[in-house]
């Protein structure tokens, strides 16, 4: 049987895909060496493991390297066009991601990526739709939705039912569902009758628990001196109206009664052919409940077709509901966006090379346990010089085209995520460009420049930009250099004038294993205003829970663009990623307590001991990774951009494996707080809604504030805010490049 072309093509790049044909035997002679693979360690979420390289070499100056020292090759044959090479051993950890994926054992010859990056494309398969977030619908609630009569009833005092939702928790705990149609609230309302749906035994247990709870609270229909607790406070008009609206709206979650007439009935043709509505919206289309209740409409599947939804209600409600259904389809499409990855080249000095070779890059050092094998990666570098006048012009135009392509791709992506529900983050980061999956060199030890450019444009090519800036010497002197750069930076606090007086912000990220997708807790602390500098008081800032992708264990990348300077391997990474927000009331109690226990130790801050983190927390068995950061934030003069320099340290705490502590490193990010403000709308986006922000690039990348030549520059040369930003990024990069030991 002929093999699927796409699968065969993917196998040419990724040896983790099992070949349908017999594999050739290992050959240590002139034939191809087949890279053997080890089965991945079982984890709650899937991952692909990759092989360590034959050896780990220290980083040398380029002049001291021989051709064969630059890139040891592990190759294998395939049936799809020749040998390939894949960086099968990941670096010590992928600090280019905010959140790690699953870690694998690093002491053996084989290892999965410590941050869980997939090693290559997966076999081609039908896209599985992602369900819109909604509560899990139990069989008991399904019975209520179908207008079935309750199994039993129980009476609950009105004030207890309105002001305390404990009765809901009791029903959920027994696997039942409770509901009432009573809407009268106020003095003399007495108690209400709640129907209970579910299995008879569970219903009986629910009723007994409800009665016991009501007796414990001491609430009843009539005042009593024997109550154990004081009577519940009288209901306010706000609570009364809220209850009435909720009860009236709840009816639209059920199937429409058969004896009711409607002012209008509309049909919505389901536009997605790959899957039926109930596959993405739930068996009862429960994901559409917010639309049903907001517009007072029933929404059901039409009997005559699998891809037609019927909307019933008054004329105004039906019209608005149909529009909301259209928006919902855009939301579903946004959740299934294919990530955009571009790896582009820039020539800051307008000087092009002729060939590209691979240089060894030392990954962040593991300081504990000390016997841990240190890892390295490969970073591209250019060699040779095309010095003709035409070559200089080609380099200049090529850089402009890369910048324009970056600009257009960002604009296109922003236009598609206005419907995306989730916690979205957009950052520009300075790091080192590393190859993780690439074609084997055919002859010699270098790529032709055109060959390298072709390779990076192919879908099988994989690369990443490190989180750390990359040069240890420059990183160690970065903070001092920024504190002196008063011609480029300014304190964000208008009352401050000295860059060295900018107080840091502290943050921590924790990752917990979970079968439905690992949970990510992000916390920040800042120094309280007017606190004693000798004993600063720290206040908790942000505390946010999100869920990572269940397959990769990382945030989902929507956009990943790297603009690389091949002279030194440095790259500006434009990254747009998303995670699913998680409400704290849906978390295990142990995780809620963990978040409450996490705090900053002032003594640890003073000691600056790399073996003892300054974030103190109660150990949790599910925690597999944590990172603490000390962030220094400055404003870029003439703009509203923030330059954030961070010192961070990572601890890999994967259960069942030896814990690893990495050396502290420094990262640099550039962003606008307006980006965070805009994208925060997506986090609270409801079904059928669109974010209110615009994707206009003039809004996302505004021109400089003031400046004598700001208007003239754009009018004369067509330079917009994005081009002005790129010039400022060049200045920032040049500042840190001058801090390196060799000045390159």
Question: What attributes characterize this protein structure?
Answer:
3 domains; globular; eight-stranded antiparallel beta barrel; disordered N terminus; 19 helices; 744 residues; alpha+beta
Can you tell me about this structure?
This protein has 744 residues and is an alpha+beta fold. The protein folds into three domains: 148-253, no CATH class; 264-335, K Homology domain, type 1 (Ribosomal Protein S8, Chain: A, domain 1, 2-Layer Sandwich), CATH 3.30.1370.10; 347-737, no CATH class. 26% of the residues lie in helices and 25% in strands. The strands form six sheets. It has an eight-stranded antiparallel barrel. Strands 5-7-6 form a three-stranded antiparallel beta sheet. β19 and β20 (519-527) form a beta hairpin. It is globular and about 85 Å long. Mean pLDDT is 79; it is low at 1-7, 9-128 and 221-233.
């Amino acid at each position: 049987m002929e093999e699927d072309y796409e699968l065969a093509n993917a196998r040419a790049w990724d040896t983790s895909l099992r070949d349908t044909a017999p594999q050739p035997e290992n050959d240590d002679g002139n034939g191809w060496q087949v890279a053997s693979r080890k089965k991945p360690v079982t984890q709650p979420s899937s991952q692909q493991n990759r092989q360590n390289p034959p050896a780990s070499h220290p980083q040398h100056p380029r002049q001291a390297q021989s051709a064969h020292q630059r890139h040891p090759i592990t190759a294998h044959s395939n049936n799809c066009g020749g040998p390939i090479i894949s960086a099968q051993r990941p670096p010590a950890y992928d600090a280019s991601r905010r959140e790690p994926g699953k870690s694998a054992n690093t002491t053996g010859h084989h290892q999965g990526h410590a941050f869980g990056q997939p090693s290559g494309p997966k076999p081609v398969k039908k896209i599985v739709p992602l369900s819109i977030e909604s509560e899990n619908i139990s069989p008991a609630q399904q019975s209520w939705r179908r207008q079935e009569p309750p199994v039993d009833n129980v009476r609950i005092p009105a004030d207890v039912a309105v002001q305390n939702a404990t009765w809901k928790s009791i029903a959920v705990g027994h696997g039942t569902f409770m509901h009432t149609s009573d809407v009268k609230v106020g003095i003399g309302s007495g108690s209400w009758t709640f129907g209970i749906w579910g299995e008879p035994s569970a219903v009986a247990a629910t009723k007994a628990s409800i009665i016991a709870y009501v007796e414990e609270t001491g609430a009843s229909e009539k005042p009593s001196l024997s109550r154990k607790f004081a009577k519940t406070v009288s209901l306010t008009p706000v609570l009364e109206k809220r209850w009435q609206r909720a009860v009236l709206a709840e009816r639209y979650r059920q199937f429409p009664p058969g004896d009711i007439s409607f002012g209008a009935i509309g049909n919505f043709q389901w536009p997605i052919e790959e899957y039926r509505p109930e596959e993405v919206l739930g068996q009862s289309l429960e994901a559409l409940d917010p639309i049903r209740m907001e517009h007072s409409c029933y929404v059901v599947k039409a009997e005559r077709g699998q891809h037609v939804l019927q909307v019933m209600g008054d004329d105004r409600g039906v019209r608005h509901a149909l529009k909301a259904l259209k928006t919902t389809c855009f939301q579903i499409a946004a959740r299934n966006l294919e990530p955009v990855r571009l790896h582009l080249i820039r020539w800051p000095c307008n000087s092009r090379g002729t060939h590209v070779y691979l240089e060894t890059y030392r990954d962040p050092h593991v300081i504990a346990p000390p016997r841990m094998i240190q890892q390295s990666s490969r970073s591209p570098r250019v060699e040779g010089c095309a010095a003709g006048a035409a070559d200089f012009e080609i380099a200049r135009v090529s850089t402009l085209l890369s910048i324009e392509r970056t600009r257009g791709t960002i604009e296109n992506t922003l236009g598609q995520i206005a419907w995306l529900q989730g916690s979205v983050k957009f950052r520009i980061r300075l790091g080192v460009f590393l190859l993780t999956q690439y074609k084997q060199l055919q002859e010699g030890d270098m790529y032709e420049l055109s060959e390298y450019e072709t390779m990076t444009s192919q879908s099988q090519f994989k690369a990443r930009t490190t989180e750390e800036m990359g040069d240890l010497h420059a990183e160690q002197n970065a903070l001092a250099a920024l504190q002196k750069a008063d011609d480029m930076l300014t304190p964000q606090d208008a009352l401050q004038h000295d860059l060295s007086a900018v107080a840091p912000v502290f943050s921590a990220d924790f990752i917990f294993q979970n079968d439905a997708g690992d949970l990510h807790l992000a916390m920040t602390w800042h120094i309280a205003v007017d606190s004693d500098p000798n004993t600063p008081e720290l206040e908790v800032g942000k505390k946010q829970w999100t869920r990572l992708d269940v397959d990769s264990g990382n945030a989902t990348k929507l956009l990943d663009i790297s603009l690389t300077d091949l002279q030194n391997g440095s790259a500006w990474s434009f990254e747009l990623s998303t995670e699913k927000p998680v409400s704290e009331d849906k978390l295990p109690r142990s995780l809620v307590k963990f978040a409450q226990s996490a705090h900053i130790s002032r003594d640890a801050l003073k000691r600056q001991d790399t073996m003892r983190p300054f974030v103190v927390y109660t150990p949790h068995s599910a925690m597999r990774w944590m990172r603490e950061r000390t962030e220094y934030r400055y404003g870029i003069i003439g703009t509203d951009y923030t330059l954030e320099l961070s010192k961070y340290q990572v601890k890999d705490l994967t259960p069942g494996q030896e814990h690893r502590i990495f050396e502290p490193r420094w990262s640099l990010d550039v962003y606008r707080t307006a980006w965070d403000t805009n994208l925060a709308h997506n986090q609270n986006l409801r079904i059928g809604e669109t974010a209110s922000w615009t994707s206009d690039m003039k809004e996302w990348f505004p021109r400089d504030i003031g400046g004598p030549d700001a208007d003239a520059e754009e009018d004369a040369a067509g330079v917009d805010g994005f081009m002005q930003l790129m010039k400022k990024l060049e200045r920032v990069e040049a500042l840190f490049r001058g801090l390196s030991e060799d000045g390159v």
